[in-house]
Design brief:
Layout lengths: L13 E4 L18 E6 L2 H13 L7 E7 L8 H9 L6 E10 L4 E8 L3
Parallel strand pairs: 1-2, 2-3
Antiparallel strand pairs: 3-5, 4-5
Length: 118
């Protein structure tokens, strides 16, 4: 997994959430106030849970909220369906941050955003 593409070098406190046991993410997850939330999206309900967690967390102004999902799914859970509620302003207060949408492995992609604070 090419986590370097997510540009996390300057962040110390990363919270990793909802990852299945068969996907190994080589980051230490923290329970103290996170600067980054990385959430695995497996079903549509996970997007809402990701938003609720991001909104209820005490994220700093300089933060990252990242959704990771499996590529090539045939059940409708894909880049467009995951990102569309943000684009249509169903979920407000998030903006894309570089690298925005990127591939981090043969099987996984990421959508990188920032939760707007203040």
């Amino acid at each position: 997994m090419e986590l370097s593409k997510l540009r996390l070098e300057k962040f110390k406190h990363i919270k990793v959430v909802n990852f299945p046991t068969d996907i190994k993410i080589e980051l230490d997850s923290t329970d103290i106030e996170a600067e980054v939330i990385i959430y695995y999206i497996d079903k549509f309900e996970d997007v809402k849970a990701f938003v609720e967690l991001s909104n209820s967390s005490n994220l700093p102004k300089e933060n990252r909220t990242i959704m990771i999902y499996k590529k090539g799914r045939k059940d409708g859970v894909n880049r467009d369906s995951i990102f569309m509620p943000f684009k249509e302003h169903v979920y407000k207060g998030f903006k894309l941050k570089a690298p925005m949408l990127c591939s981090i492995s043969k099987e996984l992609s990421a959508c990188v955003m920032c939760k707007e604070i203040g």
